[in-house]
């Protein structure tokens, strides 16, 4: 596939968010506490698109271009605030995601958890 | 800076998540509805680190390496599920984020919203 | 039914929460902002019990006494923080709920929304 | 005080919600999974009123009647869905809240946690 995700670095998207915040002098409101709230609020708005659907019906949403665009906007907000939080805290996202996936692989060995949704409480 | 985010594409991180899910045959549980719930739950766990702090104290969390690592793990979970959702729905993240930032810039013109947190209801 | 809910006033439960907070001198941490975060976090923990279940399977959870007790604890936390917020803000809950149900009835007339989950965006 | 909360039982408010749902034949959509999502979404909408405020400023919101009414509506939604979930699962709220407050008192002994917000991870 020749999609933008193949050519776009995480740093490029982070800079887009950082510039937006800087141009509005919003860093003063972007304490990690506030940004974590904004992120949770956007996650809820994303979830709102699926709340009354069955799990099966939620899979079909991707075939409706209009609905998909709406969901894409909410997901962009979630990712935008995730990047804003990383910017405020000085966290490297690629490192954090890679480290967590290693930890997840240890916690959920593939052979043991294949096809099982019952996971130990965390 | 020579951080991994400068050299890592969004597609590389998405593939990491896609492989993890495929190796466990978890796509059957990853309906968009379920993944949106998982994302909101992780966002709440991230927020938990800041819930009793003042906004100022939350800014200092970044200076505590142990706390920062904990927050980094939760943020990695949020981003991981964001990518899992994009994978299930076939959404290009870079396009979605860029389009949303253009829309945000129109909604919050820099000269009008500089230093103001009072935003119109959305 | 002769259940406690039939004989317990909202004010009695509110006082239970108010006394708990006062005995620990926690009102200083119970700013409405912080309590609203705690409430959202507890709501996510409640949701966690249902995240990988189908909607049908979630209905059967009530037949498992152990699971039901766990869910009851999370719901108690949600309601506890709801009452804590009402205490901090000086809101009468019965009045707020009654007023909102009247508004909901106007927004979703029974004859029009019977058996329909598609609701206008709010 | 002569407020409605002093004279209103939990069961009365639960019945208000149960009748509303029954009149619209919405129980079919009110699986515990779906209601837990709706509850988390309403909790996020409540939190939205406080997201950019300092903790101190959030305390003053109670002095603004218009803002207080808005927050009261969101809190009513949270409580409404809490009661809807209890209705679907057949849970007695007063019993659940009382039992949880006893457990909380054991977990956070008053003399040890007085004036301290640092709580053990749960």
Give a verbal description of the structure:
4 copies of one chain form a homotetramer. In chain A, helix 1 packs across helix 4 and helix 2 packs antiparallel against helix 4. The longest helix of chain A has 25 residues, at 65-89. Chain A is globular. Chain A has 122 residues and is mainly α. Chain A contains 6 helices and no strands. The model of chain A has no long low-confidence stretch (mean pLDDT 94). Helices cover 66% and strands 0% of the residues of chain A. At the A-B interface, helix 1, helix 2, helix 3, helix 4 and helix 5 of A face helix 1, helix 2, helix 3, helix 4 and helix 5 of B.
Please specify the SSE layout and strand pairing.
The structure is a homotetramer of 122-residue chains.
Chain A: H1 10-23, H2 32-48, H3 55-60, H4 65-89, H5 93-107, H6 110-113
Helix pairs in contact in A: 1-4, 2-4
